[in-house]
Amino acid sequence: MADNTKTKTWDATRLPDLTGRTALVTGANSGIGRTAADALARAGAHVVFAVRDPERGLAAAATVHGSTEVRRLDLADLSSVREFADAWQGRPLDLLINNAGVMMLPQQRTADGFEMQFGTNHLGHFALTNLLLPYVTDRVVTLSSGAHRMFDARIRFEDLDFTSGYNPNRAYAQSKLANLLFTLELQRRLAEAGSPVRAMAAHPGYAATNLQSHAGNPVMRGMMKIGNRFFAQDDRAGALPTLYAATQDLPGASYVGPDGRGELRGGPTLVGRSAAASDVAVARRLWTVSEELTGVSWASGAGDRGGARGRMAAER
Ligand SMILES: NC(=O)c1ccc[n+]([C@@H]2O[C@H](COP(=O)([O-])OP(=O)(O)OC[C@H]3O[C@@H](n4cnc5c(N)ncnc54)[C@H](OP(=O)(O)O)[C@@H]3O)[C@@H](O)[C@H]2O)c1
To answer: CA-based diameter of the chain, in Å?
Structure first.
């Protein structure tokens, strides 16, 4: 494992040798996902670009130095998630990076009828992770956001899809809070099963990517354009918390973000989370509800096989 004590100077050149490892990055065609995929491939990993548009995925993979492969995955369609997992065919997967995301969109639904941000950012990754977990040997890293503590963030069990009054900011905050609660409960389950696989979360601070361009509210979009220009860090710096969480020796359920003021920019370090994101009872309830909504459960996806495979990897 690389030395993780000097986080202020930590950058992608300090990644360990990942030769022989396989990493899967969702949304690897753009922004932080593309940059993280590039760094992982440069460090020797074989990187699977899991993207909704294979053509754009191929174009992005062509800019990356190293071994890559592009596969279609639409997280907003559970049949696509199942198809993707079925085609995985038992290959060992060292790093699963749940990076893809949408932010503050006008009201939209996934193919299965879920509010788009909750459906894509949380439920899609929930299903993907549980279906692939039997093959994961090392880490699951899930991207959250500082927004997990903004915009009245909470899991609205009574109305997860915002049917009674949609608010794009609140829906984004709910989905990013769900990403953290998912990590908490996943880590608890992995530990209980005796698996050495670790669940981690990361957030990039504020990074200039395509994410901000989808905001439905023109005022918000305008503010973000200005923010991107004057305050944001670039996608290379934004990818560092993901890379740090994926490769450094940290306890399970760690949350990594930038160390600068307001966690907006800076080198990767362990960061805090809101009380709502530490609520074990809510995390458990969200897990159960997510199983019901996706039809994908811990028992069918991970359970014993995940633990056994993880243990085998640790013993190698
Ligand atoms: N940038 C920031 O300041 C910031 C701050 C906090 C958290 N984050 C988080 O960082 C992660 C990466 O975002 P980014 O900033 O790199 O934004 P980005 O450049 O817009 O990248 C998002 C990626 O997600 C993909 N995606 C969206 N919907 C998808 C779906 N249904 N199925 C599969 N892939 C899908 C996008 O694919 P398309 O290209 O096809 O749309 C794109 O590749 C997100 O989870 C975001 O919430 C970012």
So the answer is: 54
Query: Rounded to an integer, what distance in angstroms lies between the CA atom of residue 104 and that of residue 89?
Result: 35
Phi/psi at 73 (5° precision): -150, 120
Dump pLDDT digits (tens) for 40-78: 999 999 999 999 999 999 999 999 999 999 999 999 999
Q: Locate the ligand 1 atom nearest the alpha carbon of residue 214 and give its number.
A: 20
* Torsion sign over Cα 17, 19, 21, 25: positive
What are the chain's domains? 19-203+277-315 (3.40.50.720)
Contact between 95 and 135 under an 8 Å Cβ cutoff? The reply is no
Q: How far is the CA of 34 from the centre of ligand 1 (A)?
A: 10
- Which atom of ligand 1 is least distant from the CA of 52? 33
Is residue 172 among the annotated active site residues? yes
Question: How many angstroms separate the Cα of 313 from the Cα of each of 10, 218, 299, 316?
Answer: 27, 49, 21, 5
Question: Ligand 1 pocket check: which of 210, 220, 231 to mutate, most ligand atoms within 8 Å of Cβ?
Answer: 210
**273 CA to middle of ligand 1, Å?**
21
Strand order in the sheet with 198-202: 68-72, 46-51, 22-26, 93-98, 136-143, 198-202, 255-258, 268-270
101 lines ligand 1 (CB under 6 A): yes
| Residue 213 alpha carbon, nearest atom of ligand 1 | 20
Average pLDDT (258-266) is 93
Question: What confidence tens digit (pLDDT) does each residue in 190-239 have?
Answer: 999 999 999 999 999 999 888 877 777 777 777 777 777 778 899 999 99
Residue 14: is it exposed, middle or buried by C-beta count within 10 angstroms (0-12/13-18/19+)?
middle
